[in-house]
Amino acid sequence: ACARCHDHLSEPIGAEDYYAFAGIFASVQHDYVTRGDHTLHIVSDAVLKNLRVFRNGDPEQAGELAPRRNIRLLSPHPDLDAYQDGSGRRELAAELTAPSNPLLARVMVNRVWGELFGRYLVETPSNFGQSGAPPTHPELLDYLACRFVENGWSVKWLVRELVSSATYRQERVQAGTPGLPLYAGMMRRRLTAEMIRDSMLFASRELSLDPPTQSLPASHLDNRNRTIYARFSRLERDGFLDEFDYPDPALHTPRRDSSITATQKLFLLNNDFVNQRAEKLAKGKKWVNPDHGVTALYRQLFARPPSDEERRIALRFLAAGGGTDRAW
Questions:
Q1: How far is CA 110 from the centre of its chain?
Q2: Residue-wise pLDDT tens digits, 185-202
Q3: Which residues are paired to 33 by β-bridges?
Q4: In a 3-state reduction of DSSP, which class is residue 42?
Q5: Cα torsion at 64, 65, 68, 70 (round to 10°)?
Q6: What is the pLDDT, as a whole number, of residue 173?
Q7: What angle (nearest 5°) sits at the alpha carbon of residue 256, between those of residues 276 and 259?
């Protein structure tokens, strides 16, 4: 964004780089084709364009043409004048995934590591430049990036490699070398907005694992599909997801916020979608022995039996409610 108006102040990226790169995407078109409730998003080359460099980002001050190409800093062929294969998307993809360009593999490895361990090897996951944070364990990052490429860029392989490692499976250690953060063990963390919604549907045994025939908002009361299939609007935020730190789809968000607010608790107590899942979960469960019922619900919800204190609280609550369906 800085290079849109001027040469970058801290990175070796010039304004010409910006417009040369932007020209690639200005040369494609987006089409939507509907077949049956299925809609296909098709991206194809359009009229090829080389953009002019806007001085100070002002379109009224258009300068020299910037031939379509990758940012020179990241290109294995920085001396080439322009891409020749249509819009240049294919050539850009080839350069990004070239064995001589380790950046993409490092970025991907860092993001998967951060999702699993709760901390990143590079704490600025969208900024590997001069102004970003340096890797805490550069040798580890390079090792995993090389192995990732050797194994066909398989994210499934990478996840298996990390979660089956001794580092991931050991207990989290607090002490260590001063100033060097430790990454041993999986860090417990809160569920994301999508996980919260999906887990409710899964617990009430309503979650559909099949791809939907139409896309509905996540908060739609008839939507039983995984949240990944939900319809997202850049203009109208979804109330359910927004309450639990879902990122703004109109912005680039390298990492999510994690907040704890009173409105989250009130939302879970009063929201229609949440109450419907609770009613579905309890419907038809007429336990003669409330103690057995509480144990069964805890196992279904949390994959564990209740603690003694949890059991006492639940039984006291049920007794106060007369053991009705509403109380369950």
A1: 13
A2: 777 778 899 999 999 999
A3: 40
A4: strand
A5: 0
A6: 58
A7: 65
